[in-house]
Write a structure and sequence with these properties.
This protein is 46% helix and 17% strand. It is of the alpha/beta class. Strand 6, helix 14 and strand 7 form a beta-alpha-beta unit. InterPro entries: COMT-like (IPR016461), COMT_C (IPR001077), SAM-dependent_MTases_sf (IPR029063), WH-like_DNA-bd_sf (IPR036388).
Length: 428
């Protein structure tokens, strides 16, 4: 390592120390944590030589498939939530083969000692090595394992299912991109029915939702995955709801209008969070979604005092609630190419009144690549496979203008890319 490289390591180490110390002083500050993580990753990168840099993505890929294999044979689920388990017991629990390769007997005047040498010739032990080295599990002692705080989180509803979907479906589609582009134009897919995802499963002519639902088991797993807390993007803190909407709230109540329409809002957890956080905002909130969503809302999820109501509605149909104060969409448009987004937004624009606002809670890709929050980049790669996309501020502005909206402001996080894009009708 030459002097210039050593200086880069020193600089990265100093920056990492600074941001980690800042995070330790503010352990609940997400921005501080992301900055510390960014600088720690930079330090790792600076310490790597060319071989390390070559092997690192290979190691990550193999570890991902190793973990998926452990899930598929039920071994992951057999590791106890507390305590540890030996390789032999884990192998027995999942029915893996183990072989007794030697037995020696020795006798003495005091006792009989039976020495049993058991060699596990199962792939399980070998697979666990890479997972332990990758930090997924902890090795208590040789061939004895326990969960880490990271691995045990995959037992939470939605987490393990999402990981399985990514490895089984998305990794498969990504692996076939070279083959796909041999027979298709090398450009961003723009058709919701003809794209790498539908092509890779022999289902061209069908959109991503149909591909996901190709078997009842796949659909059930997808629904569980999407219900996980990981997907519950924040509402509070992404937009100054109280200061920006107080006067509008008062106006719609006086005029007997709907205050807020949450389009594709699912069961309503986001709106429950919003209304509980800002009780001063008055007026009816209506959550719209498909019948299969509305019909399966848990009883008691939404207390009647919050004035939250559900309406069965397909957002591809004209918007039935006109002149609402706010039309809200969270993580909807990134699933669709521009032409479909224009159709969806067109229905909203047709329903908006002169003082209505459109709030879109979604990713805004930075103009320059940032390393604090990589979610937007790998999610954009996911969207690419079925013609959706994460959009930059310029992309959002172009999309808004194409349907007669002004982009008023992008309300940004201090660190991260999940923002709120505010739009209003263009003035004549």
């Amino acid at each position: 390592m030459d002097s210039e490289q050593l200086q880069s390591v020193c600089s990265a180490a100093e920056d990492s120390c600074t941001t980690v110390e800042d995070y330790l002083e503010k352990p609940n500050d997400r921005a501080a944590r992301l900055r510390a993580l960014r600088d720690a990753k930079r330090l790792v990168t600076e310490l790597q030589d060319k071989d390390d840099a070559l092997f690192a993505p290979i190691e990550h890929g193999i570890a991902a498939y190793a973990l998926r294999f452990m899930m598929s044979i039920g071994a992951f689920q057999k590791i106890p939530k507390t305590g540890s388990i030996t390789a032999a017991q884990l192998a027995a629990d999942v029915g893996s083969e183990k072989s007794l390769i030697g037995m020696a007997f020795s006798k003495s005047a005091q006792a009989t000692v039976v020495v049993v040498r058991i060699h596990l010739t199962i792939p399980l032990v070998r697979i666990m090595r890479i997972l332990i080295a990758a930090g997924v599990f902890e090795e208590v002692q040789q061939d004895e394992y326990k969960h880490t705080r990271h691995s045990i989180s995959l037992l939470e509803p939605g987490y393990g299912e999402f990981f399985e979907i990514m490895v089984d479906d998305l990794f498969y589609t990504w692996s076939r991109l070279p083959e796909y582009f041999e027979s298709h134009r090398l450009e961003s897919p723009s058709s919701p029915t003809h794209n790498p995802r539908s092509w890779s499963y022999g289902m061209e002519g069908h959109d991503w939702a149909t591909v996901v639902a190709r078997t009842p088991e796949k659909l059930e797993k997808f629904n569980i995955a999407m219900s996980g807390k990981w997907s519950a993007a924040p509402v509070i803190g992404t937009y100054p709801f109280e200061t920006e909407l107080s006067s509008l709230s008062a106006a719609v109540v006086k005029q007997d209008r709907v205050f807020l329409v949450d389009i594709g809002g699912g069961q309503g957890r986001a709106m429950k969070e919003l209304r509980e956080a800002y009780p001063a905002l008055k007026g009816k909130t209506v959550i719209q979604d498909l019948a299969r969503v509305v019909d399966n809302i848990p009883s008691g999820l939404l207390p009647p005092g919050l004035d939250i109501h559900h309406q069965v509605h397909d957002f591809w149909a004209p918007q039935p609630i006109r002149n609402a104060g706010v039309y809200y969409m969270k993580r909807i448009l990134h699933d669709w190419p521009d032409d479909q987004c224009k159709k969806l937004l067109g229905h909203v624009v047709d329903a908006m009144g002169p003082d209505s606002r459109l709030l879109i809670a979604d990713t805004v890709i930075p103009d320059r690549v940032q390393r604090e929050d990589l979610y937007c980049y790998w999610m954009d790669m996911t969207m690419l496979t079925f013609a959706g996309k994460e959009r930059s501020e310029a992309d959002w502005r172009d999309l808004f203008e194409s349907v007669g909206l002004d982009l008023v402001k992008v309300w940004k996080e201090s660190v991260g890319t999940f923002n709120t894009i505010e739009g209003r009708l263009k003035r004549n």
